[in-house]
Input
Amino acid sequence: MTCFKKPALDKSTHYFMALQMRIIEHKKNKYKEFLLKFAGPGGDFLDSVDIKLLKMLSDSSRTPLREMAKRVGLSISGVRKRIKQLERSGVIKKYSVVIDPAKVGQGMIAFIQVDVDPQFMQTFVRSLSQCHNVCELHGTAGPHSLLIKVRGKDLESINKFAETHLRSEFIRSVQTTLTMETFKETILNL
Output
């Protein structure tokens, strides 16, 4: 009977195997995060009824429970319970009004890409989060670290925003794109 000995592994093989294990663990964690994002309060995935309710609420949060119940085939109390679960789990963050920006003097849109010194990123983001002109603020990968969606009355108000908030020693570069026309703008479509 012949016994086979395991071949000795060199350091680079050990390193490679450890790296593979870290990558697998990272992928597992990312998958868990993904599942949690789309999971309901009990850890279950959102079902078709939840999706229909969310769609109705996103179209109009003033839709009566009776109408929603009729559309999804549940009782009013069943719909109320599901909506409460969606609120508790954080799927529904808040209810709000959608305002036509042009009708309140905020028709100009600029997308501003900013490269910020990483040491000052959190302070800068906190500061921008307080600005009423800033509609969206995203951390990005690539040549710029932030993407800012800014609204204003006109080009002058966008320039004033840039002069006030984007002139600092910790800002490495700024690139602004003005929109000429908006073809679609929604928060989320289901």
In short: The helical segments are 11-37, 48-59, 65-72, 76-88, 121-129, 155-165. The domain at 17-96 is CATH 1.10.10.10 (Arc Repressor Mutant, subunit A). The chain has a mean pLDDT of 85. Residues 11-37 form the longest helix (27 residues).
